[in-house]
Amino acid sequence: QVQLVESGGGLVQPGGSLRLSCAASGFIFSIAVMGWYRQAPGKQRDLVAVITSGRSTNYVDSVKDRFTISRDNAKNTVYLQMNSLKPEDTAVYYCNVRVNGKNYWGQGTQVTVSS
What we know:
Mean pLDDT: 97
Oligomer: single chain
Strand content: over 45%
Shape: globular
Largest sheet: 7 strands, mixed
Distance between the termini: 40 Å
């Protein structure tokens, strides 16, 4: 079965950095498109970053030049390096993959940016 497990969230001050990890299993990771989404209280879950099997990347405008998505196929892991964090980045961050027409999500990891 598909499984995604996020880690690396926490409390950080504005301007700080965090590195999120998503450990994946249950599918052929190397050919999958992986994404990071986030959901703030009272808001919908929105795409933050995506990385293809060919390692092309896309980001929501609000995180461009601050966040970097990457993947290590040998470790079946996707990362989200978050720099210059802002309070508006506060959210639960979720890892995502679409396999055979179905979306799969991890349990989420909380990121709180506050002084």
